[in-house]
Design a protein that fits this description.
The structure holds 3 protein chains of 3 kinds.
Chain A: E1 4-9, H1 16-26, E2 29-34, E3 45-48, H2 68-78, E4 83-86, H3 88-95, E5 102-104, E6 112-120, E7 136-143, E8 147-149, H4 152-160, E9 164-168, E10 180-184, E11 190-193, H5 212-224
Parallel strand pairs in A: 1-2, 1-3, 3-4, 4-11
Antiparallel strand pairs in A: 5-8, 6-7, 6-9, 9-10, 10-11
Chain B: E1 2-10, H1 17-28, E2 40-47, H2 53-67, E3 73-80
Antiparallel strand pairs in B: 1-2, 1-3
Chain C: H1 5-10, H2 25-35, H3 41-50, H4 53-56, H5 61-69, E1 77-79, E2 86-91, E3 94-102, H6 104-109, H7 111-127, E4 132-142, H8 148-168, E5 172-179, E6 188-198, E7 213-218, H9 228-233, H10 255-270, E8 276-279, H11 284-295, E9 299-303, H12 316-321, E10 327-332, H13 337-346, E11 350-358, H14 362-367, E12 370-375, E13 378-383, H15 385-389, H16 405-410, H17 422-434, H18 442-445, E14 456-458, E15 465-468, E16 476-482, H19 485-490, H20 492-509, E17 513-522, H21 529-549, E18 553-559, E19 563-564, E20 567-568, E21 572-581, E22 598-602, H22 613-619, H23 631-646, E23 652-655, H24 660-672, E24 676-678, H25 686-691, E25 698-702, H26 707-717, E26 721-727, E27 731-734, E28 738-741, H27 742-757
Parallel strand pairs in C: 4-5, 9-12, 17-18, 24-27
Antiparallel strand pairs in C: 1-2, 2-3, 3-6, 4-6, 7-10, 7-11, 8-10, 9-11, 12-13, 14-15, 15-16, 16-21, 17-21, 19-20, 22-25, 22-26, 23-25, 24-26, 27-28
Helix pairs in contact in C: 5-21, 7-8, 7-10, 8-10, 10-13, 17-27, 20-21, 20-23, 23-26
The chains are: A alpha/beta, B alpha+beta, C alpha+beta.
Chain lengths: ~220, ~80, ~750
């Protein structure tokens, strides 16, 4: 049975199609989820894709997090559903309080698109189990609001509990605290990631195929369940 | 009809690079006595209610739930004459 | 009191401010003749915006005809000049549509919004052909890099293009950033958009079928850009830092709304709900209604008060000329209106039925159709739409070769002191690699999303932007834009051909077969006979060049009045070329790839430095003649590059242009992260070999054991091929002369823009 992985489309979502492609390449079945529809189509996992939902108005992800589909996603995530939030998706997860902290304007004030070196620091989460602990990968980062901030106790807890999933290696592209590129919740089913693994699934169109691991991980996890 | 203003600012402990960039720009324009600049947002809301408590309480809830991100922002609500 | 048609008939002697609206005496007289009475205020506004230079092309029409009359035969051309954008067949049932436009003056006044709305406008043109917009290229030109006003304009323009394009989900895959004093006060912001669609799904801007409804959907209409077209575009700037009073006429964009508009429109197209469609750009509703009507049945009735407004107090003339962004106008069969509105609701897009297509009798048709616009029941417009949209004034502006042109040509660069020692050659290479025009543009291009949609195969700093159209077959498209104001100043005919040749070559060097051309012609004032001569010559050259290269012009844009006072910009025709790759995985990038690969120089090198980067950067010199054009040689070279790519023979290929061989080597080494060891051809002076800008040349690399195949290809195509050396090592080494370690090269090449613009 092919695992069904939902990809939510909010008004202004841009990388939903690319997330669906990555899921297909990894061997899963992407399922399109419309923001207004609370029915999540019996999916086994959900991806909140990159883009500019609601134009990033008010704050990135602030409006999207109240959509009908998010009510279902938040509820199921609390129950263990694997959820990956990429870029704008990560922002939605923080606004939804499924993950702590917040994403703010890049410290240098510019949008930046480049191939970024990352180090996987938690290979136990639902979305990173296909990687080796400490593995370095190259995937694109492209955002204007990617600087992760959190209160110092929160940062200490994230570090102490090993909830930092990926860290920027080399240059920090946006001033994120502790070079954090991605984090997971305590249970490890919800992961937020600023860089875009769905753009690194084919060396023809990206810097590498290093991004496939995120999607392969969840398929591996679902096959076991 | 009541008009209410919500001012949203980053919490003091959150670094504000935009404010810093603005401060530098002011310096370049000759305003060299500026000690600090922090940038925030101002929302002007017209509520179909009288200028008494129930109306304002609603606006406070708007700020808590949507207009401000409590993780990184503080807000103040006040009514306009 | 609204100025109705009836009232106009009753008050023929009312004095009207037609001159303030940009109309000449004879143009106003002609309008009165067409209508048989004085125009109403609304009609006057419509004619004034539609007959402005920007909308009517009155100064350029007579010249642009050559693109049609000299057009080469083309199997691929599906929609040619005259529609919102040209469309070409790219195979497998797919078509591509592309066009380039300018938004120069608004970008000087308000850089962010000017550039952003420029992107928005061209994207809507592509959308209105029925296509999904899939990529952007942005050729940009500014005053000197270290000028204070450039520091005001450039960051805003780049942020605006990024801000709008990124939010739309369109990858920016190519473009240029060029600096020259002549663009001070007149930056050039050209934007090219490409879209893809199924060949049988092309949409046109025709209001056919009497009884069909006219639906305006998208943003509400406000006061943005009122009079922007005629008032702003034809105003030359009299001070170099922008005029604050011009601000209200600049449009403001909402990219989120445009993204939603794109998805909504594509769904409407998919469901077959649209009979005809037009986007609203310059001149807003005046343009959309008159163009749709005159291309269709000829008749249309609009109830203007049904237009959703942002400001309740707007007057009908304002509604008609508003340039509020993110609006489209569709012709819809009555039975489909409900479904149309349901789709719009799903996407949270406002839609309003504002009128319908009407029947016209033979007499009315002969006069140019009939467009009637009412405002709360009163008729405020009753005009033949064809006279507004297509029968604007046609000027035969006088043109004269500048007196100074002979002096300019005689001032050859041959007498400029040339570097000759190894140290001088080395420092010249570094100086050019670090110069604003040749340095790395990464500081700019990193602000654009190149990855969105997951189909980008090559993007800047590669020679062409290449994207995949079909994942299963590998079908792909390549697009490149090029222009050279200095060459065009020296010889407009040749300069325009060189721009075409370079864009054509850039497409071929990536492995794609060029099939179509678009152009953005940026010039000074057409009222200046010397500028007009430049324009006439450039168009003549471009038309002849397209004929000889066998690629038709499918559409484009003219931007006049780019001048401050008496000083016009360098005449700058920017040419975009589109090509097809059957298999995008065969594309050839510019970066050196393999240690030991053989490096070959294709084409002939001559001693020619007129208008070159070397003369400009080192000596501040502009004179002589631009490099010779040889279109037959360009075709031969292109043929070789395309065949060799298709055969999987080439590891890399890079065309030679600004900065000559030296710059091409710098770029290929840095892009590949690997050095090279080359020996200059013995029969040429080293300075000439390294820095000449002769056209029809490229450097290619092949694995060492494939050299004979390359030589065979070159013989077959009749292209000179000379072995230069090999890829490898930690430096760009010119044997017997100098070596520059890659670290030093990279530092020089990449430091310039951040030092000027970051922070």
């Amino acid at each position: 049975m092919t695992a069904r992985i939902g990809v939510v489309t909010f008004p202004g979502s841009l990388d939903d199609g690319d997330a669906a492609r990555a899921i297909r390449y990894a061997g899963g079945e992407p399922v399109a989820l419309w923001h207004r529809d609370p029915d999540d189509g019996r999916v086994d996992a959900v991806v909140l894709p990159g883009g500019f939902s609601y134009g990033d108005y008010l704050r990135c992800g602030a409006i999207a997090r109240f959509s009908p589909v998010m009510e279902t996603v938040i509820d199921r995530a609390r129950g263990g559903l694997p959820v990956l939030g990429i870029c704008n998706g990560f922002q939605v997860l923080c606004e939804s309080h499924l993950l702590p902290g917040a994403l703010t304007r890049n410290d240098h004030q510019h949008f930046v698109c480049r191939d970024q070196r990352l180090r996987i620091e938690n290979a136990a989460s639902a979305w990173t189990s296909a990687y080796e602990l400490g593995e370095e990968i190259v995937i694109p980062i492209k955002n204007g609001e990617g600087r992760y901030v959190a209160e110092s106790e929160t940062l200490a807890r994230l570090e102490g509990d090993g909830l930092v999933v990926a860290r920027y290696s080399g240059d920090n592209p946006n001033g994120s605290a502790n070079d954090i590129a991605g984090i997971a919740n305590e249970a490890g089913n919800v992961v937020g990631l600023m860089p875009h693994p769905e753009h690194a699934v084919d060396p023809l169109t990206g810097p590498s195929a290093d991004g496939l691991g995120f999607f392969a991980s969840v398929l591996k996890r679902l096959a076991v369940l | 009809m009541a008009r209410v203003v919500v001012d949203v600012m980053l919490k003091p402990e959150i670094v504000d690079p935009q404010g810093q960039a603005i401060q530098r720009a002011l310096g370049r324009l000759g305003f060299d006595r500026v000690q600090s600049v922090r940038q925030g947002k101002r929302f002007e809301i017209e509520v179909d209610a009288d200028l008494d408590d129930p109306g304002l309480v609603q606006v406070k809830e708007m700020a808590e739930r949507l207009l401000a991100n409590a993780v990184i922002e503080d807000f103040e609500v006040r009514s306009l004459p | 009191m609204i100025d109705t048609v009836a009232h106009a008939g009753e008050t023929p002697d009312l004095v009207q401010p037609f001159a303030d609206l940009g109309l000449a005496d004879d143009e106003y007289a002609r309008i009165r003749k067409i209508l048989g009475r004085r125009p109403t205020g609304c009609e006057l506004a419509m004619y004034s915006v539609m007959w402005s230079e920007h909308c009517s092309y009155k100064s350029s029409k007579v010249h642009l005809r050559q693109f049609a009359t000299m057009a080469p035969a083309s199997d691929a051309l599906l929609v040619g000049i005259g529609e919102n954008a040209g469309v070409v067949d790219i195979g497998d049932g797919y078509a591509a549509t592309f066009k380039i436009e300018s938004h120069n003056h608004p970008s000087f006044v308000e850089p962010y919004q000017g550039a952003a709305t420029g992107v928005g406008g061209i994207v809507r043109d592509i959308l209105s052909m029925g296509a999904r917009p899939v990529a952007i290229l942005d050729p940009l030109r500014f005053g000197p890099a270290d000028a204070a006003d450039t520091r005001r304009v450039l960051p805003g323009v780049v942020a605006g293009i990024g801000g709008y394009g990124n939010c739309l989900g369109l990858p920016t895959i190519g473009g240029e950033v060029v600096f020259d004093p002549s663009y001070s006060g007149n930056p050039l912001v050209n934007a090219l958009c490409v879209g893809v669609l199924r060949k049988d799904a092309i949409k046109l801007a025709r209001a056919t079928g009497p009884g069909n409804k006219v639906i305006l959907y998208g943003a509400k209409t406000g006061r943005d850009g009122i009079g922007g077209v005629s008032v702003l575009a034809s105003a030359t700037f009299n001070n170099a830092t922008g005029d604050a009073t011009k601000k209200p006429t600049v449009q403001v964009g909402d990219p989120f709304l445009e993204k939603v508009l794109i998805e909504c429109s594509l769904e409407l197209f998919e469901r077959g709900l649209v009979v005809g469609i037009q986007d609203l750009g310059g001149a807003g509703l005046s343009c959309a209604t008159t163009e749709l009507a005159s291309a269709g049945s000829g008749g249309m009735h609009i109830e203007l008060d049904r237009v959703p407004l942002r400001a309740a107090s707007m007057q009908p003339a304002e509604v008609l000329t508003s340039e509020s962004q993110e609006r489209m106008c569709a012709i819809v069969a009555p039975g489909d209106v409900e479904e149309f509105c349901t789709v719009c609701e799903k996407w949270d897009v406002d839609a309003a039925v504002i009128g319908e297509v009407t029947e016209v009798g033979p007499e009315e048709a002969a006069r140019g159709g009939r467009l009637v616009v009412t405002w709360h029941g009163e008729v405020v417009v009753d005009v033949p739409p064809r006279t507004v949209a297509h029968e604007g004034p046609v000027y035969e502006r006088p043109y004269a070769r500048p007196a100074i042109q002979d002096l300019l040509e005689a001032d050859v660069p041959d007498r400029l002191p040339r570097p000759s020692t190894a140290a001088e050659l080395r420092s010249t290479l570094l100086e050019l690699a670090a110069s604003p025009n040749l340095c790395s543009k990464e500081w700019v291009t990193a602000q654009y999303d190149r990855y969105v949609r997951g189909n980008t195969v090559l993007a800047q700093p590669e020679d062409a932007g290449v994207f995949r159209v079909d994942e299963s077959t590998g079908l792909g498209v390549a697009v490149a834009t090029d222009g050279n104001g200095r060459y065009t100043r020296l010889d407009p005919f040749t300069g325009a051909q060189l721009a075409l040749a370079e864009a054509y070559r850039n497409v071929a060097v990536s492995g794609a077969r060029p099939i179509a051309v678009t152009n953005c012609l940026n010039f000074g004032s057409p009222e200046d006979p010397e500028v007009m001569w430049q324009f006439a010559e450039a168009v003549r050259g471009l038309a002849a060049g397209c004929r000889d290269l066998r690629v038709p012009v499918t559409g484009g844009n003219v931007s006049f009045y780019n001048q401050t006072g008496e000083a016009a910009i360098l005449p700058t025709p920017v040419v975009g070329v589109l090509g097809v790759l059957d298999d995008v995985s065969k594309r050839t990038p510019i970066g050196f790839r393999g240690d030991g690969h053989a490096i070959y120089l294709l084409g002939e090198t001559l001693d020619e430095f007129g208008g070159s980067e070397w003369a400009h950067t080192v000596h501040g010199h502009l004179g002589g003649q631009p490099p010779r054009v040889n279109l037959a040689a360009e075709r031969a070279l292109a043929g070789l590059l395309i065949d060799a790519s298709r055969d999987g023979l080439l590891a890399s290929a890079h065309d030679l242009s600004d900065g000559g061989l030296a710059q091409a080597l710098v770029e290929s080494c840095l892009r590949g992260g690997i050095g090279c060891r080359i020996a200059l051809p013995g029969d040429l002076d080293p300075f000439v070999a390294l820095f000449s800008e002769s056209a029809a040349r490229a450097i290619v690399t092949v694995p060492a054991d494939q050299v004979q195949r390359l030589v065979d290809h070159s013989v077959r195509h009749g292209v000179a091929a000379a072995r230069l050396g090999e890829v490898g090592g930690p430096a760009l080494a010119v044997v017997g002369h100098f070596a520059v370690p890659l670290d030093e090269l990279r530092a020089a090449h990449e430091a310039t823009l951040p030092a000027l613009f970051a922070g």
